[in-house]
Each structure stands twice: as C-alpha cells, then as structure tokens.
Amino acid sequence: MLLLLALVLPCVLAQTNQTIIDCLKASSREQVLVQLIEQAGLTDVLATGGPFTLFAPDDAAITSLPSAMLANLKNDTNALADVLKYHVVSGTFKMVDLKANEMMLETLTGDQLRINDYMFNHKVTIEGATVTYVDKVCSNGVIHRINRVLTPPKGTVVDVLTDDGNFNTLIAAAQAAGLVDALQEGPITLMAPTDSAFARLGNATVSKLLANPDVLAEVLKYHVLHGTLYSAGMHSEYLNTLEPNDRERLYASFTGYTVYVDGARVLMRDLSATNGVVHKIDHVLVPASLKAKIAAL
Questions:
Q1: Is residue 3 part of a domain?
Q2: Same domain, 212 and 100
Q3: Euclidean distance between CA atoms 134 and 123, whole angstroms
Q4: Are residues 180 and 256 in the same domain?
Q5: Which site among 180, 201, 248, 251 is 20 to 30 Å from 241 CA-CA?
Q6: Shared domain check, 285 and 167
Q7: pLDDT by residue (tens digit) across 109-121?
Q8: CB 145 within 8 A of CB 131
C-alpha cells in the first residue's frame, strides 16, 4: 500500500487546474508580463489554447528594456503580440526535454528558438537568456522563467554585422578572404572586431591583409568557433576555433562582469543570429603564429 501511494502521489501533486495565465497571475515575478499579455490580446490564447511552453521573462527583465523600446511596444499592439508569441512554443517541453545543445524549437511566430545546455555550470539558455526557474506545470502547458526578453534574430551572422553598422571593415575582410558564405552557415560563434578594432592595427597592416586573402582568412578564422557559445556558457577556458592549432586557442576570461577573449574586451554580448551568435570585441585577435607572417607581408 505504501509503495502504491509513493507511485501515485507525485502524479496527483503534478495535476493542476490553473492555466498558464492563472499561473502567471499567481506569481509575484511576472505581473508586468501579465499586463503586456492582456494589452496584446493574448490572454484567451494562453488561457484556453495549448498545450504550450512559455519562456517567461520576469518583471526585472522587462523593466530593464530601454525605455523607448518598451514604450514603442506598448504603443504597437501587433509588434507587442509578435514579441510575446516569440516566447511561446506549441507542445509541453519540460527541462528534461531541453537538455540538448543547438536544439531548435518553433515559436508561435514561426521563428526558431535556439536551446543550449551548458553542462559545466548547469545553465540552460534560450537564445542566450538564462533559464532561472523551471517546470511550472499548468493545466495547458509549462512555464520556464528567463532573465531576458527575447527578440527574433535579424538574420544570419552576416546580416547582424551589416545591421549593426560598426563592422564595415570586418565585412570587407570576410569578402576579400572568401568567407562570407562560411559566416552564413553554422551554428557558429563569431568574436567580431569593430571598425575601431581594425583601426588599431593601423591602415598599412589592414591594407596588407586585404591584399593577402590566405593570411587574412587565417586571421578571421581565429575569430570563429564551432557551435553557439553565449556568454552564459562561457567560463575561463580555451576555445577551439575554425583555424585549428593545438597550441594556440582563444582564451575566455572574466574580470567582474566583463568578459575578455585573448585580452580583447567583449563590448556587447549575445547578438543572436539565425545561424549562431556574435560577440562584439574591441581588438583584432592575432595568434602568435601569424604575427611573423603578417610582418613579412
């Protein structure tokens, strides 16, 4: 009898009559989200539809958005609805179902969400946002709390670079080295030097590199990692690049909340692309083995 109770009790406790909306309203951490869902006209969908998996940004994540961006969303119901629907996936995916790197889930907008499971620090990310609370089971699905508002990527890594406007030299270098197609495949992680970073090399060095595509390609491949590595998954470690070299690999390190890669500061993290992620850095990374080659150009 005791054994039977032990088997049945967890199932009984897991049952709930609360919908996703009910669960959100009962939480003190998602009240702003509830307001936005109501404003976007999605309350009935999340109360009666499903089953759904909701990746729910908490109040702190929403209120930390730039004030202009949040105001624009509140003034544009359609845009707000699209952003919110990007956080919702059809079907019930508990955390045990999300333990896979590079897993892709289709949202209610038709866009994809990339799931990464970083086992060394037990973090799971959704497009780089960290899951902070898991498996809130509701009658029509499950909720996972996340620490960031998600927005669909603006395209491939190349599209992200182009849209930013601070990577003109990097784009020109990728074109000269014949690597544009490679940057549209993936999944990859790009440590992306800004125009200012290339300027630090000096015009003469940049001109020499652009005129020597083979050496330039070696330099650029040193900035690219296989797979999608968001900042939440970084720790003090060596990273394997597309330019294979057992003795020279990128090294990620931390000073407080600042991330460094081979001594270059990460200026902006986690720029999601459809085929990976971009991290903006303030120096061009040049492995020691290439410095003599570049000097001899």
A1: no
A2: no
A3: 11
A4: yes
A5: 201
A6: yes
A7: 999 999 999 877 7
A8: yes
Q: Position of tokens 């330039």?
A: 216
Least confident window among 3-7, 157-161, 228-232, 248-252: 3-7
- Identify which has the larger pLDDT, 256 or 144: 144
* Domain edge (last residue) among 146, 172, 200: 146
Domain count, the chain: 2
Helices (H), the chain: 2-14, 20-26, 31-39, 43-48, 59-63, 67-75, 77-85, 157-164, 168-176, 195-201, 203-210, 213-221, 288-295
pLDDT in tens, 64-102: 999 999 999 999 999 999 999 999 999 999 999 998 889
Q: What is the mean pLDDT of residues 103-113?
A: 97
Which residue is it, tokens 């200012």?
Answer: 196
Q: Is residue 171 part of a domain?
A: yes
Instruction: Return the residue matching tokens 């086992």.
Output: 119
In a domain, 178, yes or no: yes
- Look at 51-55, 153-157, 252-256 and tell me which has the smallest mean pLDDT: 252-256
